[in-house]
Amino acid sequence: MASEKVLQAIERQDWFQPLEEGLSRAVDRVYDSMGPRGRAVRNFLHGVWLGHPLHAVLTDIPVGAWTAGFVLDVIDELRGDRRSGRPADAAIATGLVTAAAAAAAGVTDWRHTDGGARRVGLAHGVLNLAAAGLYAASLVARGRGERRTGRSLAFAGFGLAFASAYLGGGLTYSRRIGVSHAAAGGEPRDFVAVLAEEELHEGAPRRVDAAGVPVLLVRRGGRVEAIGEVCSHLGGPLSEGRLEDGVIRCPWHGSRFSIHDGSVVDGPASHRQPCFETRRRNGHIEVRAASAASGRAGKSPAY
Fold first, then answer.
1. Is the pLDDT of residue 198 over 80?
2. β partners of residue 256
3. What is the C-alpha separation between 160 and 126, in angstroms, rounded?
4. H or E stretch including 194?
5. pLDDT at 221
6. How many other C-beta atoms lie within 10 A of the C-beta of residue 222?
7. Beta carbons within 8 Å of 218's beta carbon, 6+ residues apart
8. What confidence category does residue 270 fall into, taking pLDDT thresholds of 50, 70 and 90?
9. CA separation (Å) from 14 to 9, 118, 286?
10. φ/ψ bin of 163: left (φ > 0), alpha (ψ from -120 to 50), beta (otherwise)
11. Minimal CA–CA distance to 270: which of 184, 185, 178?
């Protein structure tokens, strides 16, 4: 497929690496400078409170505004209908303002990507930055009365924004950035034995297999908690993470989840982990998918 070839070509550009590293350090410095507030700002921009990445929501606004501006500019260009000129200016300005918010969320998410997807994400951001620059120049030209120049700059900006959106779609649908990587579907509806009781030690995370689904077991104070073992962010092994006060930290990018209900405590993850009920029977620990009746949040697993 042509889209896959484009993504692979970008992923092979090793000369991106210094820029990647420099931008990554700059993002870290910004959040570090905020002190304790940095964590709250990061979680907000990751979309922890929303249940999926905030960036996906914010990008619709500038794209929609710039598309409206494009249509109005085309009408102005073809028909000389000056009544469409001012609304086009307003749409472009709206797109610029909201693009800044989308960029803040996007670069916050990008900081916690790896490999080829990180490179494609950088190209996606650079194209958006260039598009925003052209739109800003377009507004300046329009303000000077050079409307035809302004429209030409806006048309070029729209083309770059379209190309950037193309890469963004590749990141989501081909590289699965921004979607949940936690094992979903196929969770056992009935209890299945996964481990002998004596093999699960207090406070020691343990990966088990429940009918082909990776599950994380943790014994705390005599209770056994169970959530999906594959991190929803980018598929990290939670069983290799650090457990602190009922919260497991992914060893790959630092996402933190409650082992009681799978909820996200800290990003970059925004999708919660699947939650399982547990019980002890005949010397074994058994698990099944959390039922709708018991709920996924605030409910204790069965024993």
1. yes
2. 249, 266
3. 10
4. strand 192-196
5. 84
6. 7
7. 203, 204, 205, 206, 224, 225, 226, 243, 248, 259
8. very high
9. 10, 12, 48
10. alpha
11. 178
Report how far Cα 209 is from the mean position of its chain's Cα atoms: 27
Cβ atoms of residues 153 and 146 within 8 Å: no
- 62 preceded by a cis bond (ω within 30 of 0): no
Q: Supply the DSSP string of 214-225, one letter for each residue.
A: EEEEEEETTEEE
Mean pLDDT for the stretch of residues 276-287: 94
Give tens-digit pLDDT for 287-302: 999 864 444 443 444 4
Beta carbons within 8 Å of 169's beta carbon, 6+ residues apart:
3
Residue keyed to tokens 């700002």: 41
Return the amino acid letter for 79.
Answer: R
The Cβ-side half-sphere exposure at 141, using a 13 Å CA radius, reads 17
Burial class (CB in 10 A: 0-12, 13-18, 19+), 275: buried
CB 214 within 8 A of CB 228: yes
> What CA–CA distances, in Å, run from 46 to 4, 205, 300?
27, 26, 28
CB atoms within 10 A of CB 279: 15
pLDDT digits (tens, 9 = 90+) for 159-175: 999 999 999 999 999 99
Please give the pLDDT value at position 76: 87
Whole-number pLDDT of residue 302: 45
Do 261 and 275 meet the contact criterion of CB atoms below 8 Å apart?
yes
Long-range CB pairs of 3-7 (<8 Å, 24+ gap) are 3/166, 3/169, 3/170, 3/174, 4/170, 4/174, 6/166, 6/167, 6/170, 7/116, 7/120, 7/167, 7/170, 7/174, 7/175
Whether residue 54 is predicted with pLDDT greater than 90 in this model: the reply is yes
Neighbouring CB atoms inside 10 A of 206's CB total: 19
Contact 176, 231 (CB under 8 A): no
